Backbone:
């Protein structure tokens, strides 16, 4: 690999053992990818050094200690020895975690698990890591600029970063983001390179796609057909906004492995079709019409049989302030019959608290939670058999993770289910 003098010094140990181990890991990673150099990054989103009780106990048992530095060294950095972990060298934020720090009892967590999480957070704070605890860092204060090299985990955030913002990241892992946090380096490969970012498949949208639910369904359809490739979407797309992109990208990254998409005339690297495709020749052109729309709706509802709903989960990816405001309006004057948990980031919830949305939502009996979601925390209200969801991504994961049935529909369908305990959603 071609290393700069600074990179070589870190690799030789001049900047301390932790950075040396981080560079060793990054060099192995880059060589495996076929990258011959690094790019500098000043924007890392990961879970540096964090653990749950299972991981902590595993390291206690197998390594003799389960403290933050042991886990960061042996797990994140794949180091043979334990190093003192310094502060973040670059701007670094923590993505979603495993429980809500205020509603952990409802989520079925233990005091021991909460105490461990709080200990983790104090270690993150000491190292200057921004504890955003969200899958939507771009709604919570971490918004890169177009062309900026990032090192992000979390598939829904990665696809948003590349496609909507036009910043550059591969779908990194815990190890590479933790190493990037210490060094400010990431392999110059994949989505960091111009020639990797051109579209591979054309998608022609022939039926109107305007609602948030429709954007989610289109994303789910496209992810399934293109898998890990790069779709270029043209046609009848309306109301492009961050909320719709959030649902579209999360769905496409779930049913497939989409890390970047282009929408012609909408996303920043697709002012024209030619710009989105570049020198590539698309391998296929795929049509999305009313029949495809109906089929994806049926797929997303294929697991629901019992119309008695006993849980409603909203906020996947974590809800924006406008979604929270809308949910407050939809719940105004109503009481929920079954638990409704709405997930968001800490920062969005703080504004929601100040504006009175949280109070308004919780007046109905619903709860506004932060940091996690049902799929990540594996937490649903006790006895849940049937959930109602407005997120294609959550439908993709939650039923399989906790063994329940799921219905998919609009946010309004879900609120209706929360208030009545019945699923009545239909494709309009
Ligand atoms: Fe976020 Fe959980 Fe969905 S972490 S993207 S709300 S699966």
Residues:
């Amino acid at each position: 690999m071609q290393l700069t003098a600074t990179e070589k010094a870190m690799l030789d140990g001049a900047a301390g053992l932790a950075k040396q181990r981080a560079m060793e890991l990054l060099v192995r990673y880059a060589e495996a990818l076929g990258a011959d150099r690094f790019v500098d990054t000043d924007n890392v989103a990961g879970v540096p050094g964090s653990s749950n009780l299972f991981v902590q106990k595993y390291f206690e048992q197998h390594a003799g200690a389960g403290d933050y530095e042991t886990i960061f060294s042996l797990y994140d950095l794949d180091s043979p020895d334990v190093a003192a972990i310094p502060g973040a060298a670059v701007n670094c934020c923590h993505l979603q975690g495993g429980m809500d720090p205020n509603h952990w009892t409802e989520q079925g967590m233990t005091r021991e698990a909460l105490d461990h999480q709080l200990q983790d957070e104090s270690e993150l704070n000491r190292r200057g890591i921004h504890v955003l605890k969200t899958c939507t860092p771009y709604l919570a204060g971490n918004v890169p600029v177009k062309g900026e090299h990032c090192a992000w985990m979390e598939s829904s955030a990665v696809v948003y970063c590349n496609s909507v913002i036009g910043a550059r990241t591969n779908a990194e892992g815990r190890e590479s983001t933790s190493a990037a946090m210490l060094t400010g380096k990431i392999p110059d490969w994949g989505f960091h390179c111009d020639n990797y970012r051109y579209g591979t498949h054309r998608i022609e949208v022939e039926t109107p796609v305007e609602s948030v639910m429709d954007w989610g369904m289109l994303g789910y359809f496209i992810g399934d057909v293109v898998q890990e490739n790069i779709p270029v979407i043209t046609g009848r797309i309306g109301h492009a906004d961050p909320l719709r992109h959030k649902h579209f990208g999360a769905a496409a990254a779930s049913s497939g492995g989409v890390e970047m998409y282009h929408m012609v005339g909408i996303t920043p690297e697709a002012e024209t079709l030619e710009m989105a495709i570049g020198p590539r020749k698309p391998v296929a052109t795929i049509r999305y019409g009313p029949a495809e729309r109906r089929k994806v709706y049926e797929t997303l509802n294929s697991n629901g049989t019992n119309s008695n709903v006993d849980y409603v989960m909203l906020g996947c990816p974590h809800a924006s302030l406008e979604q929270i405001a809308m949910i407050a309006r939809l719940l105004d004057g109503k009481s929920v019959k079954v638990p409704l948990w709405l997930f968001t980031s800490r920062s969005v919830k703080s504004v929601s608290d100040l504006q009175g949305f949280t109070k308004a939502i919780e007046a109905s009996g619903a709860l506004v939670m932060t940091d996690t979601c049902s799929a990540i925390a594996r937490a649903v209200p006790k006895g849940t058999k049937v959930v109602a969801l407005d997120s294609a991504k959550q439908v993709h994961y939650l039923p399989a993770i906790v063994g329940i049935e799921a219905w998919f529909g609009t946010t309004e369908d879900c609120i209706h289910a929360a208030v009545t305990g019945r699923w009545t959603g239909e494709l309009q």
The longest strand covers residues 201-209. Residues 163 and 287 are 21 Å apart (CA to CA). Residues 96, 135, 156, 250, 316-318, 343, 373, 375-376, 393-394, 397 surround FE3-S4 cluster (CB under 6 Å). The chain has a mean pLDDT of 98.
